[in-house]
Design goal:
By secondary structure, the chain is α+β, with helices and mostly antiparallel strands. The chain contains three helices and six strands; from the N terminus they run E-E-E-H-E-E-H-E-H. The strands form two sheets. Strands 4-5-3-6 form a four-stranded antiparallel beta sheet. The protein is globular, with a radius of gyration of 15 Å.
Length: 101
């Protein structure tokens, strides 16, 4: 009872807190998600014939962030304000680096 509980998400990041993120995936991101993270199938539900809802708990935004940034044009962030802020800050950092060159 004196130990802290640590969780590990499907991206293999561990932490004491969990955030819930909800995404709308297109066909490509859905297929790649299942290929890379087959254990994440339980977090997917069909939205329509070509889109899926991914409602997933995460401990750290880096794992899911890598996936979303790589497929940004096929994914919409529906819920998860802190995750949305994380993605916005990564995009801002990328934009800053591009302008330097």
């Amino acid at each position: 009872d004196k130990h802290r509980q640590v969780f590990t998400d499907i991206f293999m990041f561990a932490g004491e807190t969990i955030s819930q993120v909800k995404l709308l995936l297109g066909q490509l991101s859905h297929n790649l998600f299942l290929e890379e993270y087959p254990q994440g199938a339980k977090y997917l539900t069909p939205a329509d014939e070509t889109h899926w809802l991914l409602n997933i708990p995460i401990c750290n935004p880096r794992g899911l962030g890598r996936f979303v940034l790589g497929l940004f044009n096929d994914i919409e962030i529906l819920e998860g304000d802190s995750f949305r802020e994380y993605i916005a800050s990564r995009l801002e950092e990328m934009n800053h680096r591009i302008k330097k060159e």
